[in-house]
Write a structure and sequence with these properties.
Structural class of chain C: alpha/beta
Number of helices of chain A: 11
Number of strands of chain A: 0
Strand content of chain A: under 5%
Oligomer: heterotrimer
Largest sheet of chain C: 8 strands, mixed
CATH superfamily of the domain at 79-242 in chain A: MetI-like
Strand order of the largest sheet of chain C: 6-7-8-3-9-10-12-11
Strand content of chain C: 15-25%
CATH topology of the domain at 79-242 in chain A: MetI-like fold
Number of helices of chain C: 11
Structural class of chain A: mainly alpha
CATH class of the domain at 79-242 in chain A: Mainly Alpha
Distance between the termini of chain A: 17 Å
Radius of gyration of chain C: 21 Å
Order of helices and strands of chain A: HHHHHHHHHHH
Shape of chain A: flat
Order of helices and strands of chain C: EEEHEEHEHHHHHEHEHEEHHEE
Chains: A mainly alpha (294), B mainly alpha (313), C alpha/beta (331)
Radius of gyration of chain A: 24 Å
Helix content of chain A: over 70%
Chain lengths: 294, 313, 331
Amino acid sequence: MVTIWMVVTITFFLMHAIPGGPFTREKALPPAVMKNIEERYHLNDPLWKQYTDYIQNLVRGDLGPSFKYQGVTVNQIIAESFPISAQLGLASLFIMLFVGLPAGIISALRQTKWQDHLAMSLATVGVAVPNFVVATLLMYIVGVKLGWLPTARWLSWQSVIMPSIALAGYYTAYVARLTRSSVLEVLQQDYIRTARAKGLPERVVVYKHALKNALIPIVTYLGPILAGILTGSFVIEKIFAIPGLGEHFVASIWNRDYTVILGVTVFYATLLVIVNLIVDILYCFIDPRIRLGK
Amino acid sequence: MADIPVSGIHEISKDKFTPLPARKKDIADISRPSVTYWGDAWRRLRQNKMAMLGMYTIIFIILLAILGPILSPHSYSDQFLDKQGLGPNNEHWFGTDSLGRDLFVRVLYGARISLAVGLVASLLNLTVGVLYGGIAGLAGGRVDNVMMRIVDMFYSIPLVLYVILMMVVIGPGLKSIFMALGLVYWLEMARVVRAQILTLKEQEFVMAARALGASQARILFRHLIPNCMGPIIITVSMNIPLAIFTEAFLSFLGLGVAIPMASWGVLASDALPAIRSYPHMLFFPAMAISVTMLAFNFLGDGLRDALDPRLRK
Amino acid sequence: MKNILEVKNLSTSFFTHAGEVKAVKDISFNVGIGEAIGIVGESGSGKSVTSLSIMNLLSFPGKVINGSVCFAGTELTNLKEKKMQLVRGNEIGMIFQDPMTSLNPVYTVGNQIMESLLRHQKLNRGEARKKAIEMLSLVGIPGPENRLNQYPHEFSGGMRQRVMIAMALCCKPKLLIADEPTTALDVTIQAQIIELLKDLKDKINTSIILITHDLGVVAELCSRVIVMYAGSVVEKGTTRDVFYNPRHPYTWGLLKSIPIVNADHKERLIPIDGQPPDLLNTPPGCPFCPRCDHAMQICAQTQPPLSQLGEQHLAACWLLHPGAPRVERGR
């Protein structure tokens, strides 16, 4: 809660610290029109009143009207575009978990064998190459040269493939590396030796005793990873011309549409706070040493 | 060494049973020669081929970025309207862009910007981050609590989001990128240093220094921070590529440096609309970013392996 | 006495980047049915590697390079992994040094005990649970029904070691290898654990190999002792032989470094100077030579053989050679 409030406050005052309002044009508007507009958006109220009004509306879940698009509220923009971004994000999360985790585990178990070298070479490249490079290269090779998949927009299920791969790329590689080192470290632990000394088959030792412990550090990184997928969507949605929330956010920065910038930032902050809460709960499930409410 | 009774051994001459002269009891003789932490780390870094490759690549890129534009006959902003979108050739090694500007020089200018961003980020890490974390860790108690709560609150929101907001307020440009980085890029370092200091300050050598009447500042700078150098270097080496990536990311979104300046993100972004006709415009900046990031990552991984005391043999 | 375990000429090395580390060099010993023997030595003397070699649990780059381990008539060193798994935990149980890290933190204690039972004994879950409760109360854990559902972090160090013992003994193994079972515990708890092992040895009639650097613990529990130094056996014999008639200077040193609380006159504890040798490049001659007060020319050149001193008493030292000067154990 404190985090959200802090984000709201900082963002709010930052937005109002900008010289020149959203209605500053190259050709100055007639003062009467200007005054009219300011009246409508309460821009001539004292700053603290604007702030308290905003907070009050926020508590009711109202993020206010867009400055740029007449008659459209920020809530509408989010409601329209967020589901698209959410699909993209979930697809990326799916790729990350179902490619990154197994790749890391296989690497650890086949340490220094070819599977390990292959997976880790790919992961190193994956961590180093920025997502917009991956996205543009994918678009050029698969979309333009080969023509297998649509290069832009959000039309069919095929549209989700390339963007989600580009978005997931870095984090898949990251999770694979993290999983590998985590599994390797856990396999060194005394309790793994205990499990082996009990005569358990290697399969049980790895998948029961090692894996659950190895997942702990990965769960801790889930928060930052999800935050990264979220910001990654800004650039991916731009490249593939996907009408998601990230694209709207970037557009609103260009348009100096302050209420949208403010509203979307608040929305993102809330989303991340909720995600971190879920991660914390997940963490308690996986690690009995951590108790909720501590 | 089987169980042979003593009588089973052939005769051994008497003089063999005389006591050994001057006993060499000094421990140094028995144990291995000691290796200093930094000597050992440097040795292991040198053994790591990928890390060395990364380091040489970085040095090469730095030299190229400094000298390249001076030596090249072209400038990054000169437009040749008769040479639009040329492919790589003898005169323009990387070809030209859709305005006829030499891409090689533009990519090198991009390298300057990226490296400058990396430099600024690492300086911030080393000054603000180390100091903030150091003070919080050393002070402890309520001061530490408040200082770290602030960091935690910033930390739960992605850094890029703050940087974007800052860019909105200050307006695009290289200076704003530096300022935006300055506001947020020391957070991780602060956390790392504080965690280190919290464990270090409980150790005896700090107690000893305190007992000898060393001031807080002296303890921090002479005793604690030098002992955190390993994690500090690792964090810096991980944060440089992150900062370079952030700059490219912002420039790609159009929030970075202003035209006609060229950063890699801008070059890649410019290439996007023309991707069907001039794919080389995308290829070279993309290559440059990827190679630089790879080099920093290799070096960073190598440093981490070399400096992590848990991995010492 | 019939032997449950016979170890002959066992050698184990670790093949590291720096070279071959000879952790265990040509050691032989046996354990009788229902007998408890002790293996003592400083850290790094190869005690734990010996136990891991018996269990076939050496991890890369460790490898048994020579010798045989014969358990109840079965050769273990070349046994297939699948077959070995049926021996581990079922016929040979093992307890480790640090109970804080030897239990898996994310599973309940009950889960970890029952796992062994479900794997080796033909029990269903209910029976395994009952058996686990029985084992917990056998090792002296109060309220076993509730304790079963708790996680390791909810137990104290001593209690965790009891859980480890319950786990190692739940399938009634013929041999229990206890690798420094008391080292990580408080002194008062140590005595309790040794008492428990002594008690259980008779109750389930299991043989015990007790690995420790604490001679006091050995005297308490074991009938025979093997003293190891730098991977080799330097002296072995009955506990009585080794304690009252030690013949190797290293054993003398070990005995001198035990505090005696009830001594009539105040004695100083005498440590053994220096450190164990680097097993990476061992010099020729006796490994103890650089630290030995009685070292002779030959000690620096040739390794001493094991000399037979009594029916079961052996020691490897040149002082035992008829040509050597007589040296009395100092005290």
